[in-house]
Each structure stands twice: as C-alpha cells, then as structure tokens.
Amino acid sequence: MTEMWWRRRSLTEFLRSREFRLFIVISLGVLLLALLITIPAALIGRRRSAEPLPASRTAAQPASPVVKPESMLLPEIWNSPRPLEPVFYRQPIDGWNYSRIEPFWISPEMIRYETVKKESDRAVREYLEPLP
Known about the structure:
Number of helices: 5
Strand content: under 5%
Radius of gyration: 38 Å
Helix content: 40-55%
Distance between the termini: 28 Å
C-alpha cells in the first residue's frame, strides 16, 4: 500500500515543504482578514454605545395594562358542544386468538434457519465468484 506524503518525509522536511509554507501563508492571511474586520467593528460598536439613546416616542403614553391569563382562553362559544369520539376504520376486536395470529406468526427457529441459509449462500457465492 502506498504511504501518504506526510509519512514518507521526516518532520524537518515537512516543515520546510512548499505545502506547509502555503498552509501557513493562507492561515495567516485569514487571521489578518478576520482581525481587520473585527477590530473596526468592535470600535464602531463601542463608539455607538457611548452615545445617549434618543427618548422614546411612546414615553408620554401610559404603560399598557397587564394581560391576565384568563383573557387568553378561548370563548365558551367556541368550545365543542360534546366531546369528539374517534371514528374507527374497522370495529375494534376484543382479543386475539390463534386463527388471527397464525398468518403473521414466524417462529424464531425459522428466522434462525433463514439467516444461516442466507449467510452460507453468500459465503459460497463469494468463494465461487473468482473461479472460472
């Protein structure tokens, strides 16, 4: 198997390599760009926060009344006159018996047998595939 380029070189060769220098130059460029954007934005934000805020237009209006939780309830007229009953697709059954279960039942031994059969078929297929 072919080794990767960073495993073939020694550490000193890697640090002197073109790839490493390119990585350093790009990383420093991104860092410098981030600093050039962040520092002016922080200074502008600090300058704006030092300015006094204008008076609110609504300061002369009285405070709004407190909303009571009862006022958020639905009006009584919107309530359903009777509780809704579920509509069944079919009539519910009282219980299960053997005749109802039998079409859906798969014995655990059959599941085990099918699993072993599939695995052995796969192993035989893998063994015979390369043969002419």
